[in-house]
Amino acid sequence: MNTAAAIDQHQFLENVTTEKWSLEKPVRRSIEGSKPEVLADIYQENINIAVWQRELSSGLAMDVSSLLSNKPTLQTSMTVTAKSVYNSINETLGTSAYTALSKDIARLVDMFCCLFDLKRVGLRLTALNRAMCPKFHVDRVPCRLVTTYQGSATDWLPHHLIDRTKLGSGSLGKTDEESGLFCNPRDIHHLKQGDVALLKGELWEGNEGAGLVHRSPAVLDGECRLLLTLDFIGD
């Protein structure tokens, strides 16, 4: 076999292997929209992240900025209902001065409860000056809501562009950029400040092996993030 033929055969086998690998992976994609109704699309089997792209109102942005100035180390975790959350947040923050923020959180909790028919949810509101989960990973949850009220927002990777064997211990201690988890830094997608996203996890029925791969963003010097997450709480 001449050299050119050998190269062609090698390329053919490589293409077949890549195509077979792609076909074996369940199809998963993202969906984005400017209205909150887009979040309901998380129920589609082939969707593993749904993003409501929104701009924060000036009143809400002012509340967030004031809160981070007054409570730069805020870390709160609680179990709430759609009815209790507004008072619980106000009590935790120790003032009713953050009305716009409290109302927005209450709205998101109500939406989350309605969408998934939940009586209670786990809520975390955290001020961050470092990356909380700096390496790409998947969550062993059915679905998680995340929104960043201020600062850099969550990084995530499309399902079809990653090698999941490089997650966790499979990275062999290497960084995400060195491990082979993804091929090109341009593969990394970034949520924006204000975006509300539903991240489908490994415990969503039928989504095993396809939970959204994501990580906390790098935090710039002097930057402070305010992150809200909502999780399922069983009865």
Q: Which features does this protein show?
A:
single chain, 235 residues, alpha+beta, Jelly Rolls, 7-stranded mixed beta sheet, 3-stranded antiparallel beta sheet, 5 helices, 28% helix
Topology:
Blueprint: H1 3-24, E1 29-33, E2 47-52, H2 58-70, E3 75-80, H3 85-93, H4 99-116, E4 120-128, E5 143-150, E6 155-157, H5 176-179, E7 189-190, E8 196-200, E9 213-215, E10 225-233
Parallel strand pairs: 1-2
Antiparallel strand pairs: 2-8, 3-4, 4-10, 5-8, 5-10, 6-7, 6-9
Helix pairs in contact: 2-4, 3-4
Query: Which spans have pLDDT < 50 for at least 5 consecutive residues?
Result: 10-23
Q: What is the number of helices? A: 5
Tell me the quaternary state.
single chain
| Count of the domains | 1
Helix content: 25-40%
Topology-level CATH name: Jelly Rolls
Main sheet record: 7 strands, mixed
Describe this structure in words.
This protein has 235 residues and is an alpha+beta fold. The chain has one domain: Jelly Rolls, CATH 2.60.120. The protein is 28% helix and 24% strand. It has helices at 3-24, 58-70, 85-93, 99-116, 176-179; strands at residues 29-33, 47-52, 75-80, 120-128, 143-150, 155-157, 189-190, 196-200, 213-215, 225-233. The strands form two sheets. Strands 1-2-8-5-10-4-3 form a seven-stranded mixed beta sheet. It has a three-stranded antiparallel beta sheet with strand order 7-6-9, with no helix packed on it. Helix 2 (58-70) packs across helix 4 (99-116) and helix 3 (85-93) runs antiparallel to helix 4 (99-116). The protein starts with a helix and ends with a strand.
